[in-house]
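Weekend entry, working from home. Most of the wet-lab plans are on hold until the incubator is repaired, so I used the time to fold the two sequences that have been sitting in the queue since the last round of cloning. Logging both here for the record. First:
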Amino acid sequence: MSYFPQPTLFPIFSERLPKRHEDSEVRPAHLHALTWEQRRLGELMDITSVKRVHQDDWSSEGIRFLRARDLVAFSNGEEIDEPLFISEELYEEYSSLSGKAVENDLLVTGVGTIGVPWRVPSSEPIYFKDGNIIWFKNMNVIDGLFFYYSFTSSSIQDFIRKSAGSGTVGTFTIDTGKKTPIQLPSIDEQAQIGGFFQRLDSLIALHQRERVE
């Protein structure tokens, strides 16, 4: 069993946020004034998966089909060498039963390197492997970027690790997803914080590319 490595950039989501950031020069100007509400994700949205697609139904074109390893690759900025697809007909048939992932929904790995989040970036059709990936039907209840960065925080990653147990094979399940706690400011503050970290990520990526070049 392995876990999503904890980024060092996001102590913002800890309960001690105002104190830890009061001397920081790199922060949204309003952070000191935030008030946070703790909720469980199952109270806010549907958390589920999709109808199973068998390996015989995989193809080399059509609707993109994601596995847990693909989400891990996305989080590492890696290209997928041999992406998988399913037919548009099968996608429409199965989506009529389970629904369609839309922009700002969150997909999270449930096996392998567990707890790795991927924010659905648009409403372009995608499908994914049932059981391997947990689907948080956000429906913009939480700002999409804030939701994504919250999942990389130590509080949620620690909860996932403890919930998975100490065995060699751990999973992040739908039931655990429903129990996952999250700290929430207002939706406007969520948007400001999510945008702040997205810009910070972009700046870091730019510097890393410049160092490589």
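Second, folded right after the first finished:
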Amino acid sequence: MAQVRRFSDQARRARAADRLMARAGGVADVVDRLVAVHATDPATVYLAIAARLADPAAPGDAVSAVEQELYARPARLTRMLAMRRTMFVVRRSFAPEVYAAAGRRVAVKLRGDLLAFLAEGGGWDAAWLDDVEAEVAAALTAHPESSGAQLSKLVPRLREQVVVARGKPYEATQNVASRIIRTMAAEGRIERCTPAGSWTSGQFRWALAEPLPEVPAVPARAALAEAWLRAYGPGTEADLKWWTGWTLGETRKALAAVGAEAVVLDDGATGYVLPGDAEAAEAAQAPAVRLLPALDPAAMGWRERGWFLPPDHEQLFDRTGNIGPTVWWGGQVIGGWAQRPDGTIAWRRLSPSHAAADAHVAAAANGLASTLDAARLTPRFRTPLERALSA
């Protein structure tokens, strides 16, 4: 019986530096390496990609490059609701697999919730919803790239309102528009286009989407597991299960389908890599500094993250586990950063053993301030350290 190789934390950090921090030639190449980029906070997409472009961008260039890939026709990237019911940007050519592996069940759940919401709040049924959605599609055919507000003017029934939690202290009135549009987008029938504002805006215009090719769920999960292992391996069953939102059974079948090889991690847990990928690489001679945004894929790639986090890392997270802006030195987090009202970048090192990185971090902070130029960022999920540094 072949001996299971050990993969140390040091080797994992070296691999993370090589695969997740290395610069790539273009925007779509960066997304490929990361598999999927968190897009709940719109700024994360731009900053995560800009930090990894082969040629550090001049102010505005990175934003333009990302927008070109997202909004040109045909676009190479797309936004979609997928793993863990979270918004991601993925390469459009990989979107069918991502949808079949993780997005479809999200869409099914959203539609069920929407029908219950409409029935309870207004007595409307599936036939009523079908009619409204047909009107939305017709409106976007006649008026492509319309905002939600514009769609509500074009389709009056989107302005219907529902009372939720009636009779309770938190009773509220909600428009049906946002939930109908969100469900149609989750199903891939419409898609987000250019933002109704700057690149940091979370308000988008909408257009009809090209239908995604049908892909069976089982091979799609295998494809997604393979992509995750290539970028984030070694990782445990628990890591992959958490990242994808799959059941344990689905996770194990996907790992088996790609022939994942087991390795032993420093904490004794079993990790997995792609076949032939268990050889640990040596750390780079000169670790690179990266100032990465809140919810960056590198910080959100695993459920268990102690092997790359510094002491006192709790202040990097909000109460629900969302990570804020981070300072990386090679393949590990050594601190956090924030933008101040005057546009300067403040940062704090949390790792007492990495003072050698300070000058490099200061230079990177000045470069990020230049890249952001006049833009002002406030992460959607604020953390204790980000709040303290931005004050």
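Plan for Monday: verify the second prediction. The chain has a mean pLDDT of 94.
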